[in-house]
């Protein structure tokens, strides 16, 4: 666990991610920071340097080789050190360390004067090698967009690119050069808290999003001034930790890795991601950080990755805890030999590499390789041409980092609208009429910090629009909103304590001191005076976070009790879910008339949710991950392997693969999501019954809007290999198109199928398309599909 941030100094002006700080302490800290920055500038004899004139650098390889040739061993080792701003060392010491060539980059500072000072320190160094500044820019920067699962629910790559390019622009404006994103770990066990950060369970969808986010964050190489370098994480298989318990071990067959878990990392790298962050977990007995197969054979040799690799936070030292290194010296040796270029948040390289080189256990070549990658990344970030590329000049520094003018609310709202999934809508309960009286209840109805979701690092909850604010704004004077909190997130004080510990300085989960019964009573009274109830329930954002794994997927009991009491009023009940993982909703499915999954919608969430509730926007999101009926059903992913004794609908107890106490299959399948209109799909038409080798066929389908409202839906194409040399999944997503249709409008959608869509990694890990029959399935979710078959010759 990272330590709390020193109170006198906060370069981030953020409140949610390490270092996190209380917004109440913000102003005091801002002035403390500025004092610290000025003081160090005076002591070092530098005021902020003006931006250097751009120096033309044509040949990257020659340039870097020449520079490496001039560096001492200590200077090379210094470049491999990535310092976490704050906890690790005071700013004056840091500036001295930089000038002495003992730091390559920092992360967790998003403040231009601060980073300018550090860059000034680098420019005083012997070789004037620029620093780079990294940050966790995950789903937005100053403007917070929906969390990963929400972004993925949009199935809209333009929207996702918009998030990434907007975040990049804002972060670049805050002097950030690199983000530790995208996070593309496939998650099939929703107990894992980091499920929220990723894009779900499907290799194809997550790969498409990996490409879109890399392009959005980074644009091209070299990275332009208003973009930031992407480093895909966590390489590899972090989402497959056993039991969904964070940091747990991963044991996986190579075939599963290649077919299901590795494609998104590969997609990000092929899209040009400049960096790779290495996972904290072990893989088949070897920690990723010291895993030669992973880092050398696969990443560098097989995939040809040319960028920089970064350890995760403290991961090199953790090699000792994994039990593969007896001391720090051995840990450093294993990591550097394995090609971990940057050591994050520890000084283990700095301490150990000189001795290891001296003894010959590590060669200068090992060091040169790592330093070449680090300098290469700096080159690609454009920093050798201009070390102040994203820092700019002091006169342009923003007076208020969180100023309204720096935000991109329209973009955040647009993406948020698209990120919600309508799970239930009995009796057309939704959309609501604005002229009615609405009882708005629930612990998440007016919780600004939770709107942001986890890893909303530079997001500021004071800028967040809660559902209460959004509903009130939408209703105006036409109707009424009666608010009552109704319940605390949980009545379990132990859990509250844990969540507030997680968030260091700021207790995020605040308990209403009234009794649960009194809170419910107030909510029920509000419900009785209303035409409809909107209950915002789910998880505090810290419940779906790093190190927040759960054993249950139920709503906490405090909220279940509230829902049951609300149901008993007989008023129509709409649940607005805010959560970072699939929940087990069997009970809520029975109790609620409508359920809208909003995940964590980001800064503009309150407005965006109101637009959906009132039908100003027709929901179009589809689940990027299956919802199990209960925690015991995990894993529930749709693209599971075929079995000798599969469960057969309507034939229970016949020695088939099932849990006998519960209905088989997910509560809500992958790809599922309702709309306020209905869409109909025609049968699938294939352009031919056979596909020649190297050829193509086309699958066409007509989709029609059968209802009274305009709407969008996602038409999904799945393929099943009927008989192959190895067991293949029941189906796999291979393509999709999001289409907007007016009432009564229809469109023919065409999908090109070539061999690349039929290929898989066989038992020898060859990427092959095997001849024989394939079923093409097209549907509006992964279960209700129309099917046609063809033969690959
Ligand atoms: C997380 C990474 C993150 C890093 C730096 C680690 O704890 O696992 O995802 O990028 O911290 O903040």
TrEMBL record:
Enzyme class name: hydrolase
Enzyme Commission code: 3.2.1.21
Region annotation Disordered: where it falls in the sequence: 1-26
InterPro entries: Cellulose_Degrad_GH3, Fn3-like, GH, Glyco_hydro_3_C, Glyco_hydro_3_C_sf, Glyco_hydro_3_N, Glyco_hydro_3_N_sf, Ig-like_fold
SUPFAM superfamilies listed in its UniProt record: (Trans)glycosidases, Beta-D-glucan exohydrolase, C-terminal domain
Highest taxon, organism lineage: Bacteria
Keyword Cytoplasm carried by entry: no
Keyword Transmembrane: no
Pfam families: Fn3-like, Glyco_hydro_3, Glyco_hydro_3_C
Ranges of residues in domain Fibronectin type III-like: 713-782
GO molecular function: beta-glucosidase activity
Polar residues: compositionally biased ranges: 10-26
Protein name in the entry: beta-glucosidase
Species for this entry: Variovorax ginsengisoli
């Amino acid at each position: 666990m990272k330590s709390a941030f020193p109170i006198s100094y906060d370069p981030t002006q953020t409140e949610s991610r390490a270092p996190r700080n209380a917004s109440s302490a913000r102003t005091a800290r801002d002035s403390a920071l500025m004092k610290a920055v000025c003081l160090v500038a005076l002591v070092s004899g530098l005021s902020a340097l003006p931006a250097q004139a751009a120096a033309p650098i044509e040949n990257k390889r020659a340039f870097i080789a020449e520079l490496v040739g001039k560096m001492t061993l200590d200077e090379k080792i210094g470049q491999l050190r990535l310092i976490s701003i704050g906890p690790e060392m005071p700013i004056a010491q840091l500036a001295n360390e930089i000038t002495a060539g003992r730091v390559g980059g920092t992360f967790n500072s998003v403040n231009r004067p601060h980073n300018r000072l550090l860059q000034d320190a680098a420019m005083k160094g012997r070789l004037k090698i620029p620093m780079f500044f990294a940050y966790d820019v995950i789903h937005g920067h100053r403007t917070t967009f929906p969390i990963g699962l929400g972004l993925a629910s949009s199935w809209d790559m333009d929207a996702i690119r918009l998030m990434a390019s907007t975040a990049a622009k804002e972060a670049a404006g805050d002097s950030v050069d690199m983000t530790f994103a995208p996070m593309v770990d496939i998650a099939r066990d929703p107990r894992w808290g980091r499920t929220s950060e990723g894009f779900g369970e499907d290799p194809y969808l997550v790969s498409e999003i990996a490409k879109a986010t890399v392009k959005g964050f980074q644009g091209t190489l070299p990275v332009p001034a208003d973009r930031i370098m992407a480093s895909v994480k966590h390489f590899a298989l972090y989402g497959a930790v056993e039991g969904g318990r964070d940091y747990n071990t991963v044991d996986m067959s190579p075939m599963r890795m290649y077919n299901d878990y590795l494609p998104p990392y590969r997609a990000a790298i092929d899209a040009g991601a400049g960096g790779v962050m290495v996972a904290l977990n072990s893989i088949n007995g070897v920690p990723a950080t010291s895993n030669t197969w992973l880092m050398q054979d696969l990443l560098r040799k097989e995939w040809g990755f040319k960028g920089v690799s970064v350890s995760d936070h403290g991961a090199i030292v953790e090699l000792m805890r994994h039990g593969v290194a007896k001391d720090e010296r051995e840990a450093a040796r294993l990591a550097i030999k394995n090609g971990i270029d940057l050591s994050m948040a520890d000084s283990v390289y700095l301490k150990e590499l000189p001795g290891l080189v001296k003894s010959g256990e590590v060669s200068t070549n090992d060091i040169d390789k790592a330093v070449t990658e680090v300098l290469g990344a700096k080159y690609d970030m454009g920093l050798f041409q201009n070390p102040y590329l994203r820092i700019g000049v002091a006169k342009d520094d923003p007076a208020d980092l969180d100023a309204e003018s720096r935000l991109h609310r329209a973009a955040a709202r647009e993406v948020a609208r698209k990120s919600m999934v309508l799970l239930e809508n009995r009796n057309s309960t939704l959309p609501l009429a604005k002229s009615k009286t609405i009882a708005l209840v629930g612990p998440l109805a007016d919780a600004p910090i939770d709107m942001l979701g986890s890893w909303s690092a530079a997001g500021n909850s004071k800028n967040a629009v809660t559902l209460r604010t959004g509903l009130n704004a939408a209703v105006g004077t036409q109707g009424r909103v009666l608010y009552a909190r109704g319940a605390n997130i949980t009545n379990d004080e132990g859990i509250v304590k844990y969540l507030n510990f997680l968030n260091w300085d700021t207790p995020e989960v605040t308990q209403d001191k009234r009794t649960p019964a009194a809170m419910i009573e107030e909510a029920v009274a509000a419900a009785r005076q209303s035409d409809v109830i909107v209950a915002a329930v789910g998880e505090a954002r810290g419940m779906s976070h790093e190190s927040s794994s759960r054993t249950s997927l139920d709503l906490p009991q405090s909220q279940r009790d509230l829902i049951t009491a609300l149901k008993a009023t007989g008023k129509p009940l709409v649940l607005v879910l805010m959560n970072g993982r699939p929940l087990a909703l069997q009970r809520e499915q029975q109790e609620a008339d409508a359920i809208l999954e909003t995940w964590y919608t980001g800064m503009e969430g309150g407005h965006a949710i109101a637009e959906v509730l009132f039908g100003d926007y027709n929901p179009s999101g589809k689940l990027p991950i299956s919802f199990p009926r209960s925690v015991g059903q995990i894993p529930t992913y749709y693209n599971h392997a075929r079995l000798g004794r599969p469960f057969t609908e309507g034939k229970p107890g016949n020695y088939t693969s099932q849990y006998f106490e519960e209905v088989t299959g997910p509560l809500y399948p992958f790809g599922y999501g309702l709309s306020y209109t209905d869409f109909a799909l025609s049968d699938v038409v294939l352009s031919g019954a056979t596909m020649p080798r190297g050829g193509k066929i086309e699958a066409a389908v007509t989709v029609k809007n059968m209802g009274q409202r305009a709407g969008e839906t996602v038409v999904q194409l799945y393929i099943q290999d009927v008989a192959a040399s190895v067991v293949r999944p029941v189906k796999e997503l291979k393509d999709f198109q999001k289409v907007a249709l007016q009432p009564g409008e229809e469109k023919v959608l065409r999908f090109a199928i070539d061999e690349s869509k039929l290929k898989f990694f066989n038992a020898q890990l060859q990427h092959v398309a095997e001849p024989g029959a394939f079923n093409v399935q097209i549907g509006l979710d992964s279960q209700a599909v129309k099917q046609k078959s063809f033969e690959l010759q």
